[in-house]
Write a structure and sequence with these properties.
By secondary structure, the protein is of the alpha+beta class. It folds into 3 domains: about 140 residues, Uridine Diphospho-n-acetylenolpyruvylglucosamine Reductase, domain 2 (2-Layer Sandwich); about 130 residues, Uridine Diphospho-n-acetylenolpyruvylglucosamine Reductase, domain 3 (2-Layer Sandwich), CATH 3.30.465; about 190 residues, Vanillyl-alcohol Oxidase, Chain A, domain 3, CATH 3.40.462.20. About 30% of the residues lie in helices and about 25% in strands. It has 16 helices and 21 strands. Strand 7 and strand 8 form a beta hairpin. The longest helix has 15 residues. The chain starts with a helix and ends in a 15-residue tail after the last helix. It binds flavin-adenine dinucleotide (FAD). The site of flavin-adenine dinucleotide has 38 residues, from strand 5, helix 6 and strand 12.
Length: about 500
């Protein structure tokens, strides 16, 4: 049997081991759908093996502007790898979409065949929901255009853009919206889950700045959602994650902004952690919306364990200096790097620490109120292998009604995030266990978690609280077959 026929025969017979061989079959052109010369093994939504016929794959390739990449293509490995190095999965097909019509073609292809679908925005899903084995990966990474309307103070952003794309384009025009703290995170998952950032006390979460979106639903239709159009769906995507379709474009409210902000970190040695946390617990309750400040416990590259306060003051620096005075008097800081500097310095200062390919685990809990018990737990459970980070909430985040959007944690003051990162797979077990131990210690003092920063999360029903019922009904209306299930899944009512 010649090599090409072997490949065809093996796949037709559904032999699992043949799948990796497909890429090795000699071809005169790189394996994209339009040149598919064999059927491919796929996997159904229910986990059954299905055959994806060659003609259908070619048809999908013909219908799309972007390529449909198969195993063996030079771009295949780059496209399937996501941020967290823990996830090494091999989709049967990667539909690299260039526009909403491409997304619609890909969604229809999957829906007609009951094929498992993963949607990749920026690829930062901690639990790896944006990639799958043997299914279709809808890759939005090329849809990253940002158009700024200066008069209306709005940004139209492609569904696969990164936060850096939004910050860069907006700041150039003297405008800004809430974006997260690592600039290579995708707007897609970030926004659909809520979207915390250093300006949220003043402007609210990313979803609070969302004015409309374009979404491809499970029936392949391209819909606009806003307060005026498909308002139920608009409500659901503001916190309900990728459950309702593929968002191909987001429209955000922008705000006039002076990018030179009082910002940076104040650092204390870990032996002052109690003084710093006890002060912060009281002081932070009365802060202005302009001031974003939260505690982080980390180990420096030199090996010193420290407690830090990360600061961004979104207003007149002189007023910010006054508001910070009391914090600066706590204990004896070993460094104070809070100065007036470009906002982008803060927005990119964690990019390298959270570089692509790191193996990482994260859990978080929402804190409604600081308590002595929480402070004691943080100190007692401290582990130098763990990064205790935070996202400060309160302010404008808290002023939005609990059920005005699908985001469930409006009443929290801060989110505490337990994160670990390592490179060697041999350390997986040890570091996951260490992270879980720290989280377990603080768990009695937190209420609910932010789904976007959770490696294990599978408690959508509990986490969404009173919003869950409405979410299941909207899910049933737009995705009764649960095509979009690789997310914190909301089951159709
Ligand atoms: C290093 C790092 C820093 C982070 N910092 C912050 C932060 O500051 N604030 C914060 O709130 N969160 C933060 N997060 C969490 C982040 O919001 C989530 O990981 C989010 O899911 C990332 O979105 P993504 O598009 O990059 O992810 P992806 O892995 O591409 O997708 C995540 C989920 O969203 C779905 N999805 C993505 N795009 C779309 C789309 N356009 N349409 C429909 N579904 C889509 C995917 O199917 C998947 O289920 C951070 C995460 C990491 C890894």
């Amino acid at each position: 049997m010649n090599r090409r026929n072997f490949c065809r025969t093996a796949v037709a017979a559904g032999v699992a081991a043949a799948y990796p061989l497909l890429g090795g079959c000699s071809r005169s052109e790189p394996p994209v759908a339009t040149s598919a010369d064999t059927s491919i093994r796929g996997i159904s939504l229910g986990g059954l093996e299905i055959e994806l016929e060659r003609a259908a794959i070619r048809e999908l390739g013909d219908a799309m502007t972007g390529p449909v990449i198969l195993s063996g293509h030079p771009d295949y490995d780059g496209a399937r790898m996501i941020w967290n190095g823990m996830h090494d999965k091999r989709p049967a097909l990667i539909a690299r979409c260039m526009n909403s019509r491409d997304v619609s073609s890909a969604v229809t292809f999957a829906a007609e065949r009951n094929l498992l679908v993963a949607v990749r925005g920026g690829g930062h899903s901690w639990p790896g929901k944006s990639v799958c084995d043997d299914g279709l990966m809808i890759d939005l990474s090329q849809m990253h255009d940002v158009d700024i309307d200066i008069d209306k103070q709005r940004a139209h952003v492609g569904g696969g853009a990164l936060l850096a794309h939004v910050d860069t384009a907006s700041l150039e025009k003297g405008l800004v919206t809430t974006a997260g703290v690592v600039s290579h995170t995708g707007v897609g998952g970030f926004t659909l889950g809520g979207g915390f950032g250093r300006l949220n006390r003043k402007y609210g979460l990313a979803i609070d700045n969302l004015r409309s979106a374009e979404i491809v639903t499970a029936d392949g239709q391209i819909r606009t959602v806003s307060d005026e159009q498909n308002s139920d769906l608009f409500w659901a995507i503001r916190g309900g994650g990728g459950n309702f379709g593929v968002v191909t474009s987001f429209e955000y409210q922008l705000h006039p902004f002076d990018r030179n902000v009082l910002s940076g970190s104040i650092v204390w040695p870990i032996d002052q952690v109690r003084d710093v946390l006890e002060f912060y617990a009281e002081w932070s309750a009365g802060l202005s919306d302009e001031l974003y400040v939260g505690p982080t416990i980390a180990t420096t590259p030199e090996g010193a364990r420290v407690i830090m306060m990360d600061v961004v003051y979104n207003g007149d620096p002189a007023t910010g200096e006054k508001e910070l005075e009391a914090l600066r008097k706590v204990g004896t800081p070993m460094a104070d790097g809070v100065i007036v500097q470009d906002y982008v310095v803060m927005q990119t200062n964690l990019d390298a620490a959270f570089a692509h390919g790191v193996r990482s685990y994260a859990k978080n809990g929402m804190v409604k109120e600081w308590s002595q018990g929480l402070i004691d737990a943080i100190i007692d459970a401290d582990d130098p292998r763990i990064f205790l980070a935070n996202h400060v909430a309160g302010g404008a985040v808290k002023r939005v009604g609990e059920l005005d959007t699908a985001f469930p944690h409006r009443n929290a003051e801060i989110m505490l995030v337990v994160v670990s990162g390592w490179m060697d797979p041999a350390q997986d077990e040890e570091l996951i266990a260490a992270s879980r131990a720290v989280y377990k210690a603080i768990e009695p003092h937190v209420g609910g978690y932010y789904d976007n920063i959770d490696f294990d999360g599978s408690g959508a029903a509990r986490n969404y609280g009173p919003a869950y019922d409405r979410l299941t009904k909207i899910k049933a209306q737009y995705d009764a077959g649960n095509l979009f299930r690789l997310n914190s899944n909301i089951e159709p009512a």
